[in-house]
Write a structure and sequence with these properties.
Radius of gyration: 21 Å
Strand content: 25-35%
Order of helices and strands: EHHEEEEEEEEHEHEEEEHEEEHE
Largest sheet: 10 strands, mixed
CATH class of the largest domain: Alpha Beta
Number of domains: 3
Shape: elongated
Number of helices: 6
Number of strands: 18
Length: about 270
């Protein structure tokens, strides 16, 4: 079996499919010593080089992995920061082949669930607006919130980059001037949650992403730590973006001794600094 070169390399976590297509057009990739062409197919047994550097690959890439990382406030989502601030990649488990790809971003002052995978195609599908993947946030706002404001946020507000709105808003309590809300949207524009609330004259004093598609931030997971999704959870994620076949079904999750199922007992890890 073989597959298109850009899809194969994206699945290995070397970049998004679109990015790799650009590398092919630029003549940066060779296969068995010949400059690669768009549409070319590989099975993993070839000698593949990017910018003259050989790739160590196995046939059909490697096992697809997905992490659910609890990003703390103060960490950058970028791989390198010119101001030398800490990044999420310093805490992740090492990969023998490929690299971790962040599914979207969370800004410096936002915490919560960040998915990472070594599968570039999966990352691209999860981020692409056409997939309509829900993102859910817990938001603490400072200031009085009137019913008319909530109505506007549901119907749509014109921001500098176009119309934006929340698909759902749910009150979640609070005291005094601080109130908690859970909001859902289906796109990942820069600081969109904060900008929507600020358009109504209130300030976001705390923001946590608690869900991305079918994956929920586990209660009890501490900032700077991660859970690795098991096979059933990965299949569920693949189905959400149309990458799993219709007959694929997650295996039933077995309860633990406490009677609970995931996410209370996932395979997890503690973040570390290299």
């Amino acid at each position: 079996m073989a597959e298109r070169l850009q899809k194969f390399l994206a699945r290995m976590g070397l970049g998004s499919r679109r990015q790799i297509e650009d590398w092919i057009r630029q003549g940066r990739i060779t296969v068995n010593g010949v400059v690669a062409q768009l549409g070319g197919q590989v099975n993993g047994a070839e000698k593949i080089q990017i910018d003259g550097r050989p790739l160590q690959v196995r046939p059909f890439g490697q096992r697809r992995r997905v992490l659910a990382y609890y990003k703390p406030v103060g960490e950058m989502t970028s791989r390198h920061d010119p101001e030398d601030r800490p990044t999420i990649f310093e805490r992740l488990p090492p990969l023998r082949d490929g690299r971790w790809i962040a599914v979207g971003r969370l800004d410096l002052n936002t915490q919560g669930l960040l998915l990472l995978t070594n599968d570039g195609e999966l990352a691209n599908r999860l981020m692409h607006p056409s997939s309509q993947i829900e993102r859910e946030y817990a938001v603490r706002v400072l200031g009085e919130v009137a019913p008319e404001m909530l109505k506007r946020l549901r119907e749509g507000v014109v921001l500098e980059d176009g119309l934006a709105r929340f698909d759902a808003i749910r009150e979640a309590g609070g005291e005094g001037a601080n109130h908690w809300y859970h909001v859902i949207l289906r796109e990942g524009r820069h600081r969109e949650v904060r900008r929507l609330w600020e358009s109504q004259g209130v300030t976001v004093s705390r923001l946590t992403r608690v869900r991305y598609g079918p994956v929920t931030l586990r209660r009890g997971l501490h900032p700077g730590h991660w859970d690795e999704l098991d096979e059933a959870q990965v299949v569920e994620l693949l189905r959400a973006v149309g990458l799993a076949s219709p007959e694929s079904r997650p295996e039933p999750r077995q309860p633990s001794a406490t009677g609970r199922i995931w996410p209370d007992r996932p395979r997890g890890g503690r973040g570390f600094r290299r």
